[in-house]
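USER:
Class, as today's exercise, take the chain set out below, and explain how the chain folds.
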Amino acid sequence: MKAIRFHEFGAPDVLRYEDAPKPGIKPGEVLVRVLAAGINPPDWYLREGYKALPPEWRPEVAFPVIPGSDVSGVVVAVADDVQGFAPGDEAFGMIRFPSYGDSLGYAEYVSAPASDLAIKPRAIDHVHAAAVPMSGLTAWQFLIDLGHDEPNPLQPDRHQPVPLAGKWVLVNGAAGGVGHLAVQLAKQQGARVIAVASGRHENFLDDLGADDFIDYTKTAAEDVVRDVDLVVDAVGGPTVDRFLRTIRRGGALFPIFPLGFASQDEAARLGVTVSATQVRSNGAQLAELGQLLQSGAVRVAVDSTYPLSQAAAAHERAADGHIQGKIVLTVGGADPRPQDASAVSSTTWPPRTVGH
């Protein structure tokens, strides 16, 4: 099969489009012919050698590596012990995250634990389905249900979502992959949402249901917002501390990328809970999210698409930032048309295609 692999860490140009062994399946697994693969930050963290992580947290990597976790495609084979999937089923999922292995998403075929997959909603095409898993599950596990008991190396306590009905939620980085889904899931839970993004995303976020909008290029949210119940910072990093002043006593701050937060003592003094988690593969949760996608209650935006062979260009686009939704690789002649076009909103269709 064709796949994207890299043989050393580095910039996007280390990504090579080349022949790779087609994976087999083990008990509990299915083989998927990939039609689209979503791009996520962990893909370039891996490509760069996890240089942002402390050395003791960096996993050993055996080259060559196929990056990617999010896929949508067609099941072509199932192990004898697998139930719930059959050849011909259309499925999507986040594969084996947070681990990685020899069979991952930037490829024409991927073997996947059946428990990592869900049936693709018929109302969306493979491109949009591949944009969902990591971002959607991140928003789901932060806001609705963690879904696992794995320990978190960044904090002693298990992450706990908070009740959102009637609450004010600020989402920073609201137009990005996690952010635009967090806005919608918070609204689904009955929250009122303040979306923070650059001005060009205002109409997009208004269409997704945001109750208020702050253009961070003109106004610092922390200067004008007070007494919200929850801040979801989908940008994270060393600047997340500034949002403590926007949160009421008893509220919470959820940094999606928590490395760099340094004000736990200040958070405790202000009575603010700071909590994060690492997203994990969960086909059952993805199936629940799929119901919302099928009904149109939640929509996913695609910033741009690139053919698999141009994965390096897609990574360069990601590095440019200011992404609206997700970047997706198309694989093996993916049909860009939704099966039920009436269910796809103008905010999600069509994506910008590159390299065709």
About this structure: Confidence is low (pLDDT under 50) at residues 335-350. The CA atoms of residues 52 and 99 lie 17 Å apart. Residues 155-274 form a domain with the Rossmann fold fold (CATH 3.40.50.720).
